[in-house]
Amino acid sequence: MNIAKVGSVTNDAPETTVPLETVAAATNRLLDTIRGLDDDVTVPSLLPGWTRGHLLAHLARNADSLVNLLLWARTGIETPQYASMFIRDADIEAGAPRPLAEQLADNETAANRWLALAQSAPEEAWTATVRTRQGRPIPATEVIWMRLQEVEIHHVDLAAGYQPGDWPADFVTRLLPRATADLTRGIAAGADPSVAFEVRSTDTDFTATVGSGSPDHTVRGPASALLAWLLGRSDGAELTGALPTLPSWK
């Protein structure tokens, strides 16, 4: 199964800004799940090589990294999302073994810090352009969408009962076309750019062709199940049709 790290999805700028209340609600659901976890943070997450402790440390540091982007938008002073990828990875490794109570407190504090800064941002800050850790320029409003993805997708990655079917419909509707478009770019850059197939949601009106050319088969299923499979969070058991081997996410 090819697991997509959240920050790897290209995510073209959404047509509308995600309400901060949506991120706050998703964060509360995540924190409730963390509060109910077993104290053993070494339990594997759905991300290969990462325990729940790694994932919890990443979620907190991601909130801090997005604080950096909000500060950049607010002050005009360039503040990279992460000082370096080495420091990012080192912080995750250092934070992973901490007890659950410490992980929870860290995530509560980091999430509240990010939300408070977003809520107090002046209107002109949201018109600024900042850059993601991959160097992609984005409008500051997309930082809200970035945080929502981290919270929703990694909530599933905790493997603690929150499933793709629990994703809010608006979240699935927003991310599904971006996931198919990004996968098409991945196929075009791969060894077999001729691969093409259709995905068709059985509970919404969404359809899309992944790859270029005429699709030779169709994969059908609920929109959330399609998205989970495309992101590597599902083996596609809920889907029908011949499931192709998806290219690795970059």
Please provide a written account of the structure.
The protein has 250 residues and is mostly helical. The protein has two domains: 8-162, Four Helix Bundle (Hemerythrin (Met), subunit A), CATH 1.20.120; 172-230, no CATH class. Helix content is 46%, strand content 8%. It contains seven helices and five strands. It has helices at 20-35, 52-75, 85-95, 100-119, 142-157, 169-188, 223-230; strands at residues 129-131, 137-139, 196-201, 207-211, 218-221. The strands form two sheets. A three-stranded mixed sheet has the order 4-3-5. Strands 1-2 form a two-stranded antiparallel ribbon. It is globular, with a radius of gyration of 18 Å. The two termini are 14 Å apart. The mean pLDDT is 91.
Task: Based on the model shown, name its key terms.
single chain, 250 residues, mainly alpha, Four Helix Bundle (Hemerythrin (Met), subunit A), 2 domains, two-stranded antiparallel ribbon, 7 helices, globular
